[in-house]
Amino acid sequence: xxxxxxxxxxxxxxxxxxxxxxxxxxxxxxxxxxxxxxxxxxxxxxxxxxxxxxxxxxxxxxxxxxxxxxxxxxxxxxxxxxxxxxxxxxxxxxxxxxxxxxxxxxxxxxxxxxxxxxxxxxxxxxxxxxxxxxxxxxxxxxxxxxxxxxxxxxxxxxxxxxxxxxxxxxxxxxxxxxxxxxxxxxxxxxxxxxxxxxxxxxxxxxxxxxxxxxxxxxxxxxxxxxxxxxxxxxxxxxxx
Length: 240
What we know:
seven-stranded mixed β-sheet; single chain; alpha+beta; extended
């Protein structure tokens, strides 16, 4: 096979492979907004790919797709979102008060931004508003074990975002947001950091077969460079 044909086939293979690469797995965003007067808004955001058997490879539903989706099918998507959120999310108040939000569903793009461009990915955003029950001092959520995707836990209080947020996997419970101070009741765990790796010295090159006390690094590198230059020159000469 000629070099040009080889590169063409390789390029086509990489293009096909890239087209088959998975999108990032969708998460379910859970955003709460608390006001001083006790008003409380809970908002959830679901990617319709979450309803597919394998969300990792499912294509996004775009604004252009939504434009040609029948109203009956759009209603079915909202019904799926309503059923889905009940299986993956539990709202927890302290002291224990049962909360069953009845969300109103809209089609938006990410972060509750209105759909504008044809390529905008469509999200199902559910909104519920209510009052914090008297005597309630804490708020948290639980990612139910029946879910398969993670939940993103965001909070806003008195017009300011709470700096700490969490990614919850099925079966995990978030930190408790104190509804008097609007701060987390527990400290965040320390960040996970990768161990420091000492830089590889030229004199410790494992490919050169020598340790720190070796004196053959430069000749070995020069030899390798010389071989590469020679092979390149021979190929050009043969092509001419």
